[in-house]
Amino acid sequence: MAAAIAATIRRIPRGKVSTYGAIAKAAGYPRCARHVGQVLKGASGLPWQRVLGSGGRISLGGEWGMEQRFLLESEGVRFKGKKVDLKAFEFHFGSRRRKSKTRAGKRSATTRRGVARPAELTGVFDARARRPSHMSHRP
After folding, report:
1. Domain residue limits at 122
2. pTM
3. Which end of the chain has the smaller Cβ count within 10 Å, N or C?
């Protein structure tokens, strides 16, 4: 999750900004805006100044907030009062295509995330022995 969020943050070009929520959604983790903040806190080398709170506000306080505003203004980003003009400077992430289904158009015996299902869920199960059928031989 952290790697996907960091990669999404790196996609924001100079002179553009995005919000914590938009970054989380673009990384594939909607409703995980707080995790974006944790990634920014723990990773170095990310363009942290380009990440803003909802509505384009700077969510950092004190000197960090002033430094963020200074860095953004040096990149050409304009403010309307205490908020960034998101209509002009918000970066919109392009939608990524989802992986297609198997060739025949049917799903295999895997879950949506591609993890193999246990034998109990695929129907290959020996109820008498309470174990998968390939292990049902009894000595």
Report:
1. 107-139
2. 0.66
3. C
